Amino acid sequence: MCVSTVMLYTFMIAASTGSIAETAKRLRYSKSTVLYHIREVEKACGSELVERDVRKFTLTRSGQKALEISEQLLQKADELKSLPAADSRATSTSRLRDANVGPSKNLRQPRRTVSA
């Protein structure tokens, strides 16, 4: 099961507001999208993270732990985004240069000649 950073962020906002409607309003999502994101995070964790009530919800113990982990993961994701672009290009270029993939440069298609 794969949970996106968007789903984790939605879960974090919902936890801070305690309201599906408020979360949907803040993120400009539908209520069903917010609920879907929360359910997907719950599926990935394998446990119920929120106790739902008519108007609001509260986090379970597992939900509190999941919130802490979500905050850490999103912080690390931000760190990944802030890596210098020049470093990533140099690394990927050198990896590609060192990789032994594809046809050799010495192999060429035979030339076709057209006789008149």
UniProtKB/TrEMBL annotation:
Matches recorded under PANTHER family: HTH-TYPE TRANSCRIPTIONAL REGULATOR (PTHR30126), HTH-TYPE TRANSCRIPTIONAL REGULATOR GLTR (PTHR30126:SF40)
InterPro entries in the record: LysR_HTH_N, WH-like_DNA-bd_sf, WH_DNA-bd_sf
Any one GO molecular-function label of the UniProt entry: DNA-binding transcription factor activity
Gene3D superfamilies attached to this UniProt entry: Winged helix-like DNA-binding domain superfamily/Winged helix DNA-binding domain
Protein name, UniProt field: LysR family transcriptional regulator
Organism per entry: Streptomyces parvus
HTH lysR-type domain segment(s): 8-60
Biological classification of the source: Bacteria, Bacillati, Actinomycetota, Actinomycetes, Kitasatosporales
Family label: Belongs to the LysR transcriptional regulatory family.
